TrEMBL record:
This is Platelet-derived growth factor C. Residues 18-45 are annotated as: Disordered. PANTHER family: PLATELET-DERIVED GROWTH FACTOR (PTHR11633), PLATELET-DERIVED GROWTH FACTOR C (PTHR11633:SF5). The gene is PDGFC. It is found in: Secreted. Keywords: Cleavage on pair of basic residues, Developmental protein, Disulfide bond, Glycoprotein, Growth factor, Mitogen, Secreted, Signal. It comes from Anas platyrhynchos platyrhynchos (Northern mallard).
Amino acid sequence: RTGSSACGKDAEKLLSAVLGPKSAENDTDTKPQISREQGVQDPQHEKIITVTTNGSIHSPKFPHTYPRNTVLVWRLVAVDENVWIQLTFDERFGLEDPEDDICKYDFVEVEEPSDGTVLGRWCGSSSVPSRQISKGNQIRIRFVSDEYFPSQPGFCIHYTLLVPHHTEAPSPSLLPPSALPLDVLNNAVAGFSTVEELIRYLEPDRWQLDLEDLYRPTWQLLGKAYIHGRKSRVVDLNLLKEEVRLYSCTPRNFSVSLREELKRTDTIFWPLCLLVKRCGGNCACCHQSCNECQCVPTKVTKKYHEVLQLKPRTGVRGLHKSLTDVPLEHHEECDCVCKGNTEG
């Protein structure tokens, strides 16, 4: 294991560096405070580590049983603002098991300091957490243990610096999918129309084998939707994807007032309203990287509808009645785009 020998060395020294000396003369404005009742560090305090080269952090006493009632927070800050920080978990990983698949008691979590997004929270020992990459030059790690059932070996995280390929516009697009930050990977996944395309992207060398495994009805891997629904076959993921497309941002029937639509307040039309195709729905799964998306037309056609037109006669009582063709816009295709970027 590359670099794993660093984990487990000087554990007590690291714990002392984070918690501070035990002397009662500590500066209360700069040192973390320890609760006498529970021995838990104030989670508002964090140990800032300036990152100039590769290194590692770990739970106290790693790879042995970590102490109870502990809260430790590290914030890794790279000196170079144009680099990312990559976190790789040591294969020796074990914390208190989750309850109902939720890490409630002992856990380690990784957070993006720029927006407070929690990239992941892990506990138990069934699997090693995946690799994490920061969005910028900082990343935060938090370790929590309660007063019951400490486990071993704890955790060890190796951190390395990554230099973006394009420094003028950092982009992780050249990284393999498994190395992308979760939000970037989520945007990439959203762009595929079929599960076959998605699996080919994720595993280009063995996508056919992975696809076969995905649909193989192995009892241990069946989801709750399969078991509780008593379905005779595995759910068609492509159909689910298509349903989202059909019922999200799509052309749908809208009734429009002809007077308002044509801006003809001097004329009466019958029928007063007609049905047209207009874009509607929501953009909850918009794959654009923006704060707000909206459903807009990408293909518009003009169609003529024959209606009865009633217009006042000039200087004469009564109405002039005639059949006339009125042009109305119909939206043929729609898409979710960033609000404010709907032109061109």
